[in-house]
Amino acid sequence: MIESAVGTPVYHGPFAEYCQRFIDQKRALGLKYRTEEQLLRNFDRYTSQKYPDATQLTEELLNGWACVHPNDRGDKSSRNRFTVIRQFALFVIRCGEPAYVPDSCKPLSRSFVPHIFTHQQIKSILHVVDKWAYESRRTDIFKVLPVLFRVLYGCGLRVSEALNLKIRNIDWDKNTLLIQDAKFGKERLLPMSDSLASICQTFYLNHCRDYGQEDLLFRAENGTGYSGRRIYHYFRLILRECGIPHRGKAQGPRIHDFRHTMAVHCLEQWTKRGIDVYAALPALCAYLGHSTLTSTSRYVRLTAEVFPDILELVENYFSAYQEEDVS
Q1: What is the pLDDT of residue 65?
Q2: CATH code at position 233
């Protein structure tokens, strides 16, 4: 049994020592490894129950855990397990022990298509949140929503990145946002449009002037930040008021689709202006914080699908890249 620093049992199974060493190594490299740690704990429970006396990572053992689970939210859950268990098996081998290594991770399904908001839908969403703020609703979150959704769309941020923004992350002189501790442990510096920067600065002067540099930009009056779950609750209410249908759990539209929409609308504008899309893709890739260019290139196809009138303009660019998961 491996215990945490405060004595709480973490790993119990036959590979407990390797689990802890694996996580420690990843974090020593600067990786968060939170989701992966939870998956490894699930693996530890599985081996404790099914293979308590196991001495090797066998094919039967690994595939038995990494196969699709009935409570999976989709193929991505299965791929995540395969990714973690493959890396773990390779780590065990590097430690000098034999282990079966899965050949590859299960491929992601391409059945999910993100919702790309139309320009009119974006206007409708912003109109609703502006109206709520003007009506001076009960809680301070209604002052936050108009700025938050403009930042999500205008900068293509993940909702966690926006909610984690601190006052010190904003350079009012240069109109930039510094995104820190983002996915893959990256940070990036994002320029804002003049109009968005003006909105953010007005919000800051009206609501955040007395905040410290380490305080969150989007926070309640009691100083606490907002959870993604709470923002999603209001997002669903906004969709309903705008008449934008929701397809059901995990089907969207999702708040994350503001990020997809920003990328597609950006490519739409580039294409109409005659800019070589693939020559400009590295800039969009860096702006979004993608780990690979192929992740960003998927938006080219989405742009052609959402705006068929510019299909001929982008079809010469599209075939150069494979699709990858967009995150």
Answers
A1: 84
A2: 1.10.443.10
Dmax (CA) for the chain in angstroms is 66
Is the distance from CB of 297 to CB of 321 less than 8 angstroms? yes
**Residue among 50, 55, 64 nearest 92 (CA):** 55
pTM value is 0.65
The answer as to whether 283 is a domain residue is: yes
Is the same domain home to 145 and 204? Answer: yes
Q: Are residues 132 and 238 in the same domain?
A: yes
Q: Count of domains in the chain?
A: 3
At which residue do the structure tokens 């689970």 appear?
A: 69
Angle at 231 between CA 229 and CA 236, to 5 degrees: 95
The stretches in the chain having pLDDT less than 70 are 1-9, 67-77, 103-112, 136-138, 183-185, 249-250, 293-294, 300-301, 304-305, 307-327
CA 1 to chain centroid: 33
174: containing domain: 119-242
